[in-house]
Structures
1.
Amino acid sequence: MPKRFITIGVQYLAFLSIGILFAWLSLRNLNEDNWNQLKQSIQEARLWLVGPVCILLLVSHYLRGLRWKLLIDPLGHKVNPTNSFLTVLLGYLVNLGVPRLGEFMRCTVLARYENVSVEKLVGTVILERLFDGLCLLVVFGLTLGLQPNLYESILSTFTKSNVDNSPTQKDSWLFYYLLLILLLLGIGWLIWKKIKIKELTQLAKGTIKKIISGIFSIKKLDQPQSFIGLTFLIWILYLLAGYVGFLAFPLTEKYGIAEALTILSVGSIGMIISPGGIGAYAYLVLYTMQLYGLDYSTALAFGWTLWLVQTLVIMLGGVISFILLPWYNRKTEISRSYPE
């Protein structure tokens, strides 16, 4: 078996294990009383608001497709916006199974239908991810800027248990053990790859240079203002999806934009550290909402509901895209061959 496949397999199992661990952490305190409260929270929820959340997420994915098109067009290929949208959804679907493979998959599929080099498309996706990473840092900054006491609350919760069913000292130690395991795995990976500290430093410097170069390359686009505007709208829609999620539960409707920013921040981390955010997303949202005084059962229902809705949108959207892409392009090709 090629060494690359072994590496991908090990990485996937590591991320999946992290997701399973977080899922267990979020559910392990679920006793009979909590379970009854959880069912009551779901029964009292305004589930009709799932529809608006799905619409917000779908629109954000469509805008992401348009933004990707802006990166591709200067390469000399005017891609169809429908194709870019459908391939984005397809890529998200693949990412649920194997993280990062979806990025390559959407490039491969779009290259097939738009006659664009896969290598060029991969470059645009890397630039897109670099820019999103910068946006996530901005979101973190806004979150802590609007809530200066939040950082202290996070630290205090890891040193003592002051909320019923909140992360206990045992949970905190589990978190530290997880960090230690990740650190050891990272060191083991460096030894296995025979990477020296000097090479690692050079890699870090090269990555920083690429990020800076990528940011400034936005100026070279045909429509840089549109790219920035679409990026802003994408993250605003993410934020609104979380805010509308608050309105779905009677006990969370009191929360506002500041808390929605926090959910966006921690939820993004959850989506990064486990495949499709499984386990990690719900646990981080559960933990965060308890910092705001929400009871364990409602916070658990809220976190898992948000994750399920996002996953449902990706799964349905990805499957429909898989079906629509060949049909849509065959229809488009026929219409070009026989113009009216």
Note: The chain has 13 helices and no strands.
2.
Amino acid sequence: MPFPIHRMRRLRASEPMRSLVRETRLDPAEFILPLFACPGEGIRREIGAMPGNFQMSVDEIVRECAEVRALGIGGVILFGLPETKDETASGAYADDGIVQRAIRAIRREVPGLLIVTDVCNCEYTSHGHCGKIVDGEVDNDQTLEWLAASAVSHARAGADIVAPSDMMDGRVAAIRHELDANDFAHIPILSYAAKFASVFYGPFREAAESAPQFGDRRAYQMDPANGREAMREIELDLEEGADMIMVKPAMPYLDLIRDARRRFDVPIAAYQVSGEFSMIEAAARNGWIDHDRAMLESLTCIRRAGAQIILTYFAKPAAELLG
């Protein structure tokens, strides 16, 4: 019996050969770096559960954004930590809110950098939930008014893209209507369309100071067991006017990224969330895995599954390695 003609190892023999036939490539222009804006000046406070990431005052955010632009990273997404929180999430849609101030400063000092804004309420409410509380529950329809107002205020400040992450029903339609009514028909919506009630958000709660003060968010974020429902959520958001959609988290939901890529011909983003980042960082610091290889492998898998935009806390170190 002759040896098989097909020897798959021929195309793996060297790094130049592997690079030549590589199917999936990473480009820093596809990355979005999450940033956390806080009040004050000269503040760069490291997040304990997310080494190398910081709560930053607006002046520090501007410096960070200049570095992001120099590295060729696609853009940033802004989260806000307000001076005060209240029952009505007023800091989310105030014209002088922390995110709105950060947008204006970035637009002025780092022209050309793409600015995405997270549109939600959990960082701004005293109770830590994503909407208005009525009889102990988040009221879906009344919350839509807050979300639409926030999106308009971000657009007015100079945001390029608004990204609602609250998972209220009908939020995309409400935001689209208000953007159009206020002469922001050109602003696209990147919807967190399939956002799951995931344990992998844990470190983010420290970063954004947004842990709910009672209960949890499983009544509005998705059940991790439901894949078909995720496709329905995406479909509905696109019908309501979303221009791009997101799957969050990324790595545990690669199957859904792939399903979405096969079904929907729109730009697809995936969020490599805080827990995914922190697990790699912790394992690498304990010497259990190679940091850089794990980082790039995880990003490559997300890209291979079909996401063309990756929100990741690894944006800067990955961009530096990719050159």
Note: The chain is about 40% helix and 15% strand.
3.
Amino acid sequence: MMSFGLPALGLSLLLSVLLCVHVVRTGRELYWLFIILLFQPIGGMVYAAAILAPELLRGPAIRRARQAARETLDPNRAYREAKAAAEESLTVHNQMRLAAAAAGLGRWDETEALYREAAQGVHAEDPALLLGRAGALLELDRPQEALTLLERLSQVGDKGRTPQMTLAFARAYEGLDRAAEADKAYDSAAGRVPGLEGLARRAAFLARQGRRGEAEVLLADIDQRLAKAPPHFRKEGRVWRDLAAEAMAGR
């Protein structure tokens, strides 16, 4: 009995101390300290059920899992909600939200039209609208129109000069067979665009240019990053990895 009781008591005390630390660090009411310490282990169990469990269920990992499940079961939900909001109130914010949702479904004609309609009046030079529309034009294989918008965007000021803009320039240059300019822009964007899109698009460009060895080095880098990435990052990361791999396979 003694050999069993002492370890159990030590474990209960350790857990109680950890819960008390959580109480203090999160600014909870100090009466929790007395409940946890005086009524071991029941007090700790009550605290865990009343405070810790709801916190964990509201945590970012749980939210991401719920969001992923909703997107898998109902991929059109975000679009429907954005469309309903835009129909109720046609603000620029709601148009941008609907454009992003349309882009997520690959509705590039609609995406381009929404950004074009939103970029009117005082919003004509809005960097987010110009870049969003340029991205849609690139997906529609209209690189010259995209380049015209990007050149306007580059004149807006520092707010318009982002890694995403540089990547869009690279894609427009490639679409216009301006390989040297595309190479320079892809190289600049590859390490600056968050996530794996910049690296993957540069690898795909190098593969299309016949520079397979350089593309393979980038693809290996992408694989290493994916292996170390948290689970919620891997789904999107694999999309960009596949884009690079398909270019290397000539598809």
Note: The two ends are 69 Å apart (CA to CA).
